[in-house]
Amino acid sequence: MGQEASARRTFFEAGMKRIADHERGLLHMMLEGVNGRPGMRHIKGVKVDMDGRDLYTRDLILGVEFENIDCIRAVEEYEKRGVITFERSAGSMYSKRMVEAFHSKGMIRLSPLHVNTPDDIDRFLDVTQEIAALY
Question: What's the mean pLDDT in 88-113?
Fold first, then answer.
């Protein structure tokens, strides 16, 4: 490997580490809260599924459920507020096995990206709290 290729690889590796660190930071904000907002672990009526505490072993994907609203309706409520989420319900042939393996009827899949910002997470937590208070 030449010097130029080696330098590019070093920059690439540093960039990938920064992306991973940023994603872990966003995940921490989503779970624990930020700027005085409670995170998903602390919003009344919200349950984080498959919630491992070690953020170094997790990707920036969450499965959540609301106590008083099913996942299909929750996805609709998010969409009304301009937040795109995905439902994973036992009624879907694509999700049924996975959802039932976790003893759930359905969950909302949250999959932010490294391009999301802390402000995006602030807004997301506000929207989640609003939806949790609806029912």
Answer: 79
Q: Under CATH, which architecture does the 3-132 domain have?
A: Alpha-Beta Complex (3.90)
pLDDT above 90: residue 56: no
Contact 36, 59 (CB under 8 A): no
**What's CA 29's distance to the chain center, in Å?**
10
| Torsion sign over Cα 112, 32, 117, 12 | negative
Q: Do strands 62-66 and 86-89 pair parallel, antiparallel, or not at all (unpaired)? A: unpaired
For 92-116, b where at least 16 C-beta lie within 10 A, e where not — what string? eeebeeebeeeebebbbbbebeeeb
CB atoms within 10 A of CB 72: 14
